[in-house]
Amino acid sequence: MTIPADVQPDTTPLDPPVASTAPLSTVRPFYWSVRRELWEHRSIYFGPLAAAGVVLFGFLLGMMIVTHVGRSSWAFDPARQGHALVIPYDIAAFAILATSLIVALVYCLGALHNERRDRSILFWKSLPVSDLTAVLSKAAIPLVVLPVVTFAIIVGTQLVMLLLNSTALLLHGVGAGPLWGQVFQSPLDMPYALVALALWHAPIYGWLLLVSAWAKRAPFLWAVLPPLGLCLLEKIAFDTGHLASIVGRRLMGGLGEAFKAAPGSQDVIGASPQMDPIGFLTNPGLWVGLVVTAVFLAAAVWVRRYREPI
Amino acid sequence: MACIEARGLRKTFGQTIALDSIDLRVEEGRILGLIGPNGAGKSTALGAILGLIPYQGDLTVLGRNPWTQRDQLMRDVCFIADVAVLPRWMRVSQALDYVAGVHPRFDRTRAEAFLDRTSIKRRSRVRELSKGMVTQLHLALVMAIDARLLVLDEPTLGLDLLYRKQFYDTLLNDYFDHSRTIIVTTHQVEEIEHILTDVMFIDRGRIVLSRSMEDFEARYVELSVKPDQLAAARALGPIHERQLFGRTILLFDSRDRDQLAALGEVRTPGIADLFVAVMGQSDRAQGAAR
Q1: What is the pLDDT of residue A9?
Q2: Are B221 and B247 spatial neighbours (Cβ–Cβ below 8 Å)?
Q3: Other CB atoms closer than 10 Å to residue A118's CB: what's the count?
């Protein structure tokens, strides 16, 4: 943002020099707007943390049961049990990931609605923060902040689990080395999955933000019913389900798009799929989705401009 | 330079005309009271000035178009729309951090100094504060911003008398310095009339009266007429007549004070008295037009 040349600069010596404030004027408001979201929506980190707590509690409980009941079944024969030992770590990661996805959806639905409902939008609009900055800072929560938070919490949780697990193994005189190797076999999977999911889900977040900015009440119904209605309409009119499958793939198919089954392992349950960044990046669905996201966000900026407090 | 200049400013909501092509000019360094009944178009006018709503006609605020250049304009403009708009979840310290973060003209030490004179704790959330304290907090934030235009839309609504008085005293003593412009709307006209430099009445989307306070005081005379002089006084063409404690009070526009003094006691009317008179007139004019 630059100061138009025809605007007469202030000459009062107390004023901050215009030149030093101008370059900051887009980055600083954005940074503080994101921080503001974190202050307001503590579920962004408390949600995944709560999931981590539940997972750890369950893990601890399970470990206690296993050590008491069937000590022979888990601590020995590392070759066979190795994979079974890793399953809790995958469950932990998925539980935390699923929670943070729900947090993201709930967040987006309220982000531009609540500020109108409590009229605080008038306060935000009384400050030199553009609607574009406001909407982008809110979009950054599910697209950037939550993936980072989720990653940190998953890694933290898995480390705690590993420490507990290793202690238990060592108490039984079994080395924990293979376990660590198994858990961190493909360390890039998780960050890749988080980034890919954020990109794949971006149009959903964009849609929810738009509805949130637009709906006068019941943003949840406005977000869900129109797509549902269109799917039904298509089914009734043409007896086809293209729209439904597009929506379904968008909602649930993110990991399927980003990963591919390991070669020759289609029928082996639990075989870890492999990252497929090239397939993902050359997937037109990804790019169409991102364009749609941009359209939704632009519309949300426009709507926030015009909408009044409710 | 004019702080605000509007020509043919018009805003409609469906069939309702909220602003009916008004012309208006507010010079820098004035404190303008915008007075009108509910639904008269005050908030619409302020919304247009603040770039919150689109409008028709020409409008310039501090040399900028408030709709297309709102983001830049908001560096020089502050507003308090209502006491309820500070987000309830926010902590006082967060409000200070945030405004300091996004506003290049915010002086944090000034806001802190003002807050230190109140009983507001930095850790408190807005929802834990009383209504009066929320207003104090908002005022502390706004007064620490070196703005050129301050817009107050019913800033003291629902506050008790002590807070209301303190609000305007602080505004006048610690903030106003003749290079800033303040526009204020309120229903409690008596409380702000001593601080105003200009007054504007607005009704049904039109400006029905616009005067500087000097002009106001020079032109309008209220006469508590002696009963035996009533006919003579009425012959001078009062713009309004009312009864108070069994005496007739007449309001005159541009009449010789000495001449009126012979008929009873004269004084300068309050804005509220003139408001009632002018609104009555505009009602009659509206009736006659139909």
Answers
A1: 41
A2: no
A3: 18
How far does the CA of residue B263 sit from the closest CA of chain A (Å)?
Answer: 52
Residue of A nearest to B63 (CA): A7
Distance between CA atoms of residues B105 and A257, nearest Å: 48
Looking at residue B101, what is its pLDDT? 92
| Cβ atoms B86, B95 nearer than 8 A | yes
- Chain B residues whose C-beta is within 8 A of a chain A C-beta are 50, 52-54, 63-64, 70-72, 74-75, 77-82, 84-91, 94, 97-99, 101-105, 146
Q: Where are the domains of chain A?
A: 28-306
Chain B residues in contact with A129 (beta carbon < 8 A): 71, 74, 102
Q: What is the pLDDT of residues A232-279, one digit of tens each?
A: 898 888 888 888 888 888 888 888 888 887 665 555 445 567 888 888
B150 beta partners:
B78, B182
**Who among B74, B80, B146 is closest to A128 (CB)?**
B74
Q: Is the pTM of this model over 0.90?
A: no
For residue B266, what are its two tokens?
């004269």
The residue-averaged pLDDT of A280-291 equals: 90
Torsion sign, CA atoms A303, A307, B2, B6: positive
Q: Going by C-beta distance under 8 Å and a sequence separation of 6 or more, which residues neighbour residue A179?
A: A78, A82, A85, A86, A162, A165, A166, A169
Which residues, 6+ apart, have CB-to-CB distance to B223 below 8 Å? B233, B238, B249, B250, B251, B252, B260, B263, B264, B265, B266
Which residues on chain A are in Cβ contact (under 8 Å) with B81? 119, 122-123, 126
What is the residue-wise DSSP string for B19-66? Answer: EEEEEEEEETT-EEEEE--TTSSHHHHHHHHTTSS--EEEEEETTB-T
> B123-147 burial string, b = 16+ CB within 10 Å, else e?
ebebeebeebbbbbbbbbbbbbbbb
Q: In what order do the strands lie in the sheet with B31-35?
A: B77-80, B149-153, B181-185, B31-35, B198-203, B206-212
Q: Does residue A81 register a pLDDT over 70?
A: no
For residue B60, name the pLDDT band (cuts at 50, 70, 90). very high
pLDDT of residue A17: 40
SS3 B8: strand
Contacts of B80 in chain A (CB under 8 A): 126
Q: Does residue B162 come out as left (phi exceeding 0), alpha (psi in the -120 to 50 range) or beta?
A: alpha
A202 to chain B, minimum CA–CA distance in Å?
27
- Contact flag B99-A127 (C-beta cutoff 8 Å): yes
Q: By CB neighbour count within 10 A (0-12 exposed, 13-18 middle, 19+ buried), where does A57 fall? A: exposed
What are the pLDDT digits (tens) for A15-59? 444 434 444 467 889 999 999 999 999 999 999 999 999 999 998
| Averaged pLDDT for residues B57-82 | 89
ipTM exceeding the 0.90 mark:
no
Cβ-Cβ contacts under 8 Å, A9 against chain B: none
Chain-wide mean pLDDT for chain A?
82
Exposure string for B88-106, b = 16+ CB within 10 A, e = fewer: ebbbbebbbbbbbbbbbbb
Going B114 to B116 to B119 to B124, the CA torsion angle's sign is: positive
